[in-house]
Amino acid sequence: MIELSESAMRKLALGEDLTDAEVTALFESDYVKEGSPYPEFLSAGTPLYEAPGSLSLIQLVDVEREMFAYLARHPEQMRLITPRRFEELVAAIFRNNGFEVTLTPETRDGGIDIFAVQKNVFGGDLLHLIECKRYAANNKVGIGVVQRMAGVVDQHRANRGIIVTTSSFTDAAEDVRRTMPHKLAFGPYIDLSQWVVEIHQRNQAKKSNT
């Protein structure tokens, strides 16, 4: 387990910004584990994490804020974090946009990494299935991944399947999506980077108003 430095912990406690090196350490540290009493950090569904006694819920929120700030400046780093960290990041993005999210177990083999529920005030909540592909820039998501997602959406009777990636999609994959726009949605790197920036900007606005 990689632990955060005392200076980084002190900054989190005081709500101060971390350095790039300290934020990079967050990507490698086990600041959250399965079984958490703090599901609000990344998952508003099944509790998946356990925070060590040294980190309070407020500090965990600060960790998330620092990650968004860092990735807004260095979006290319999303291609270097572990696949599981990338899934956690995507879950945090959707949670910050009003979804109730649940990460599936890391060993799950079914293509679905996140269940995201969009609450509907008129009833009939919308279920979105999310698959995360942390790929190199030149490794495009192909038609096979998209076709499997379409099948899984039908299997789960979900409203939509969303594939989020740090790369982009092949022309064939885009063709499939265009045939079923209400069933499938894509989150390529260019959109993903913008989502991170928007959340960071909202966090900055909140911080300025406190």
UniProtKB/TrEMBL annotation:
- Indicate the segments forming the Restriction endonuclease type IV Mrr domain, all copies: 81-178
Q: Does the keyword Nuclease apply?
A: yes
Q: Which UniProt keywords apply?
A: Endonuclease, Hydrolase, Nuclease
**Where does the record place a coiled coil?**
none
Pfam families registered for this protein in UniProt: Mrr_cat
Q: Does the keyword Glycoprotein apply?
A: no
InterPro entries recorded: Restrct_endonuc-II-like, Restrct_endonuc_IV_Mrr, tRNA_endonuc-like_dom_sf, Type_IV_Methyl-Rstrct_Enzyme
Give GO BP annotations, semicolon-separated.
Answer: DNA restriction-modification system
**Which Gene Ontology molecular function entries are recorded, alphabetically?**
DNA binding; restriction endodeoxyribonuclease activity
Spell out the protein name for this chain: Restriction endonuclease
Q: What is the lineage of its organism?
A: Bacteria, Pseudomonadati, Pseudomonadota, Betaproteobacteria, Burkholderiales
